[in-house]
Every structure is written in C-alpha cells, then in structure tokens.
C-alpha cells in the first residue's frame, strides 16, 4: 500500500503542476481522442516532449526501457525507434538519424520528442497552437469520404432474402461465410447506417436465425445473417446498385437429431477441468468465439526483466506461455477459441484487433505483463473499454475485467492495482467486441519478476483467466 500512496502522490504532482507558469499545458490527441496524462507534455527548445508510455502505448506500440544502456525503444508494427537519454542520435530500424532535442528523464519519466517518434512510426503530426494540442493521426486513419446511407434492412415477405436499401450506390462491398456458428457476412464499405445497430429476429425462418446489422467501423456497415445449419446465401444488387439482396437457400434437408449439440465432456478434458477447478462451457455459449492475444512477439519483445543488469526474461515469452496454458484449459472446457499467435512471431500493427473483428469474435482477451521505469511498482491490473456496457454479445467488459481483477489478485496474491477504464489503449479501442487486457505482474519489480519466472505464477494466471472467461460465457446466454 505504501507504493500505491507514493505513486498516487507522484501522479497528482505531475498532473497538477503547470509546466510553465502562465501557459496552459500541452495536450495530446490521438485520432481525435485525448491521451490521458500521467505526466504532462513539456516543451523544450520548441519541441514537445511526451511521456513515451502514455502516447505510444495508446497507439498500440510497446515501449521498453534498457536501464543499463539508458535507451528507450518504441516498437510499433514493423518500426523500431531507439533513443538514448540526452543523446541527439536516434535509430529508426537501425538507421541513425539526428534529433534536435534528445529524449530526457524528467521527474522520473522518460520524455521523448513526440513529432520525431510519431513520424518515424508512420503517423502524421500537426500542432494546434490556439488550443495547444498536438494532433497525431495514426496511419490507418484515412480521410473521410462521403458515405452512402443505408436506409433500411428488411426481411422479404417470403423470408428467403434480406433487402438492403441505400440512398446511393452500394459500390464497394465484401461478402463471406464464416463457420462456428455458420453466418453470412455482408460488409458495405464507405457506408453508414441510418439509425442504430440492431437485430431482426426471424422466428422459425428455415434460412436464418437472426439478422444483425451494425456500424462496423466509422465508414463501414456490416450485416450478418446467422444461418441455420444447412442454409447458404448469395449477394446481388439491383441495376441502380442502390439495393442489395442477400438471397438464401437450404442446401440439404435436416436429418433428425443432427441439430442436437453434444455437450458431453471427454474423460481427458474432465481431468483438466478438475485439475484447475473449472467448469465446462454451457452448450449455448460454445458458439461464442473467444480470441486470445498473447501480447508482443517476434521482434517486439515487450518489456524485459533484468537481474544484475542482464536481461533474463522477455515479456513476449511469458505472455505466450500463459496463453498456451489458458488455451489448454479453455479447450477442455469446450470454448471456441482463436489464438492470435501460438509461436514467437511478429504480428503487424493492428492485425490482432482487425483479425478479431473479421472473425466476429464475441470476446477478446489480451495477455500481458507490466513494467515501469523504476523497480517500485508491483502487482496486477486489468484494463477495459467502457463502451460495452450495456453488454455486447451478452458480455460486459467491465464485469469481466472486475471479475478477472478479483480472481487474479486472490490467486496470485499480488498487489491489487485495480480494474481500469482505459479507452485510449489500441487493443480495446480498435476491437468491436468486449475486450480486456490483463497486466499480470511487473517484470521491472524484482519480487514480481522472481514470481513471473515460476510455473506457479503462469498456471495461476491462466487458471484465473480461464475461470472468468468461462463464467462470462456461461452468463452470456
Ligand atoms: Zn505488454
């Protein structure tokens, strides 16, 4: 608790102390969302220096600190930017570049030149002098074009097609079928819904169970038909291209009993469940896809644990190990799973979230461990986005995050740093479905690090996550 008090005090001082008397503090906006301050940006020799973590972790990157070399590395996608404290030399993917103003340590935080690093990782940066805001646009944020308005989505009278009516051409679209559960996805690009997201219940329709539609991204609309077991669908458009039709047919007759789901658990799976005190996923929740994201990987090591100045552990390896244990447990419980990675590979920026969105996952769980510039902080924290309350897919990110926090703290026995609303983090910002990030313990804290290295820690981390996911799935139906 002493640590918490100490940290809180530091944060309060940083956030309230004006940088220069008489001027408003500089703020940072990332894709239109203000990045929350843990220490305010400072202006040095006409350049804005920002807390490396606050800004570049919000961007989905990873920031690591090498205490021995006094070097800070920012990894985003395939870009690696290395800065040495108080040095005007920087390295972008190993190539030397000159800086006007070096990275500095100010009040115990590494502060780095925001424009230089943002541009090095492919962002656009502009300065709003009037409001004193540094505007950063991440590479995926394209300019807005006029959007076609989807005016109505209706089931035809015969019930064998869905009619989509727009105020302009439905020019750019994709459609594909996904399994488990079987569904036809029709995605219209450069489009926006006339009203809110919704669902059309289709009753005992032989082709589909329901039609769901949503503003999938800010400029695309998704219509998903949940198919019955033997139905399939095709997409066509009117000559004017202002109307699209999703037409369904039943491929083969249902055989009696084929729709019944087997929920029996094999002896082998039951043994795994018993070992960890887990229950099986209920039949009705087995179709809900859970995406497990072991943080970092490949060139992106994540944070690193040091003993006597030597790196002894990479976060990416612990995260993967925990995730693989979790995979084994959730499989035994009968959950539908997708693993972002099962090996030590580099995943391009935003690929993780795009994949989960593409798959139409119901839940996203990101496995991480923490680090800090000094060795003081320790313990467990969980992050989530507040946008999924009321729940989506029957799952509340907040409830799951709070349950995870409670369960992890009780099983791991580490300091309780709380379940936190962190809308700026890329993982929860870019995922459509409820998403939660676990930060198990601190690689930068010697006691935490010792524990992280053990099987006991990894087993309890995975077991706690499995338990909470199974509970969330079972509560969602
Ligand atoms: Zn991490």
Written overview of the protein:
It is built from 10 helices and 31 strands. It has 477 residues and is of the alpha+beta class. Residues 1-22 and 254-261 have low confidence and may be disordered. Bound molecules: zinc ion.
Key phrases:
477 residues; alpha+beta; Copper Amine Oxidase, Chain A, domain 1; Immunoglobulin-like; Aminopeptidase; six-stranded mixed beta sheet; five-stranded antiparallel beta sheet; 10 helices; 31 strands; 36% strand; disordered N terminus; binds zinc ion
Q: State the helicity in percent bands.
A: 10-25%
Structural class based on helices, strands and sheet pairing: alpha+beta
CATH superfamily of the largest domain: Zn-dependent exopeptidases
Gross morphology: globular
- Biggest sheet strand order reads 27-24-28-31-29-30
Span between termini: 39 Å
Sheet of most strands:
6 strands, mixed
- Radius of gyration using CA atoms only: 24 Å
Question: What's the CATH architecture name of the largest domain?
Answer: 3-Layer(aba) Sandwich
Number of domains: 3
